[in-house]
Amino acid sequence: MTDAAVAGRSRRWPVISALGVVMIFTWGSTYYLMTVLAAPISRDTGWSLGSITGALSAGLLVAGLVSPIVGRAIARHGGRPVLSAGCTLIATGLLVIASATHLWIFWTGWLLLGLGMAAGLYDPAFASLGRLYGREARSAITALTLWGGFASTVCWPLSTLMLEVWGWRGVAAAYAVIHLFGTMPLVLWTVPAPPAQIERRSFEEPDVPRLAGREAIVFGLMAAMLVLNGLIVVNVSTWLFTFLQAQGLTLSAAVALGALIGPAQVGARVLEMAGRGRHHPIWTLAISTFAIAAGILLLAADYGVAGVALVLYGGGNGLFSIARGALPLAVFGAERYPALMGSLARPSLIAQAAAPVLGAWAIAGAGPQATLWILSALALANAGFLALLWRSIRA
């Protein structure tokens, strides 16, 4: 490796580390926020838990609807203005939530958070790295997911501590301050402008890359896998304790087993990083898909090995986050990557928005165990889509 290449790679670490901190707090103050705050908000305001968690679903729906616009903005202008806007929108939404005296104001805050999530979570961060580093961005994407894996580990205890001292409104306001005076300046100071040769590209090109033939099939299969994975992951995150308690475990035992997922995610990402991108990302997607399927099937079968099942599931989910960023880059190339990542994010986020409601219906109608088998069927269907995707890419 040349000295210039080494220097270029070393300059990435301030960017990746800064974006890693940003990911911890954007995820922790949006996607993971209601895990700690939903019950206290309900007790304090009298609003139902359904209406509170429904606001999160509405935010995810908004994020899905606007994500293609975000991808095109990153393709045109780079990640710095988009990611900083995302942090600002998240801060604004949190301030609205902190001051909400009526449910409609609370929902308004979550709609703003949805806009912020579209511009401030993994997909825009991946697109920004692809815009900066082209086909060499895979290692940066892997490192960023390693940082992001600590979002719940950092923010759940932090949210709980702030809740005890300041109440739920204080938690929302404190995260808003963190974004206004922490994450947003970090983005502005550390994320560089996109390469000049890309910046000078003609804007006569279409905002949405047109795909045809094999590429269109590959894109559709990727989108289908992201949708099914979103349905699985959100339902496991939302209803895991319900599933485990239905199998006879106490709440404390269920919580202890659930804690295995986070370390398994991080451990799998460390192993992927150790591989240094020597294998095609389709292999990462394959391992993640089969690990998730095996974990969900073991959990549904109720063989008394829930710990093993959740380690497999967590490791697979950790790798899936990397594959969703690295595979489109490898298949479609760096130039089209930001816009296509925005388009891929839309169906996934919409599925995640619908997942808790669909899961609640399934549990109420068929029971927790049957719902686990439904999730197992979705995981097996994803393995089928993987086989088709593998064939399409390798053709």
Automatic annotation (TrEMBL):
Residue spans crossing the bilayer: 12-34, 46-70, 82-104, 110-129, 141-159, 171-191, 212-233, 239-261, 282-301, 307-332, 344-364, 370-390
Superkingdom of this protein's organism: Bacteria
Keywords (A to Z) from UniProt: Membrane, Transmembrane, Transmembrane helix
KW Cytoplasm (keyword) present: no
InterPro entries reported for this sequence: MFS, MFS_trans_sf, Proton-linked_MCT
Protein name: MFS transporter
Organism: Ruegeria alba
